[in-house]
Amino acid sequence: MTRVFQNVIVIGAGTMGHGIAQVCAMTGRSATLVDIDPQRLADALAKVGANLEKGVARGKVLPETRDRTLGLLGTNTDLAAACADADLVVEAVPENMDLKETILRTVDSAAPATAVIASNTSSMSITALGAFTSRPERVIGLHFFNPVHIMALLEIVTGELTDHEVTSQCRAFAEDIGKTPIVVRDAPGFATSRLGIAVAMEAIRMVQEGVASAQDIDTAMELGYRFPMGPLKLTDLVGLDVRLAITEHLHRELGTDTFRPPQLLKRLVRAGKLGKKSGQGFYDWES
To answer: Where are the domains of the chain?
Structure first.
């Protein structure tokens, strides 16, 4: 069977970008990471290498798979050149609409007409993103979860103009890279972010009101509701700044108090306490 999307371009060498490139290369695809910062690209390759070494040490990744994966990974600082032969382009940059517009317009002008353009956005409208291109029918959301090489879900988001065949191709792609796909329509927050952010914001309000500690709230959800990770620990892992941006977007779109950002979240972000990546959030990650 012909592999869906043999040549994949991933834009943004951050946490999500390097993970997406890794799972594509692990299934025999050529995967190129694109970023304007050469050091970020080097760091991303090092992280992929560390992930693979850990997998080998645990007996979950064969040494030959590690070697093949690293051989299929490439980097580029020139977005247009990287997209010239792309089958699939996945945008995985920060949740900034102006930034995404600039990138998508460049991709649209450089990638082949047959290429599918996907966004890893967790909350922004796929229909709106598609409007930045001349091919909205070939624009779709591919929302991966962190860490990409471990998390099983891939949320496929269809815009108002996304072609059914593109959706089918993305389903097949998801299954081929070992993910379980769900398909949702283009609504604010999709399925996962809308529900996940609602729980997280209420948990933050509970800490703000002194209902219980962050650790006790997380323990309640992990043991009482079988959450694999409590909502506050997950917020630390994702990044408080990222979650603040998402809930502000959902509040603008939906207008409900459910998504009104808690003052505690705003204060922590202003103080630079962004979670695991900064060492401090709802938990002390430095210790």
So the answer is: 7-185, 192-270
**What length does the chain have?**
287
Which fold does the domain 7-185 belong to in CATH?
Answer: Rossmann fold (3.40.50)
Per-residue pLDDT of the chain (287 residues; tens, 9 = 90+): 467 999 999 999 998 999 999 999 999 999 999 999 999 999 999 999 999 999 999 999 999 999 999 999 999 999 999 999 999 999 999 889 999 999 999 999 999 999 999 999 988 999 999 999 999 999 999 999 988 999 999 999 999 999 999 999 999 999 999 999 999 999 998 999 999 999 999 999 999 999 999 999 999 999 999 999 999 999 999 899 999 999 999 999 999 999 999 999 999 999 999 999 999 999 999 98
pTM over 0.90: no
Order of strands across the sheet with 30-34? 73-76, 30-34, 7-11, 88-91, 116-119, 139-143, 153-158, 180-185
* Amino acid letter for position 94: P
Report domain 192-270's class: mainly alpha
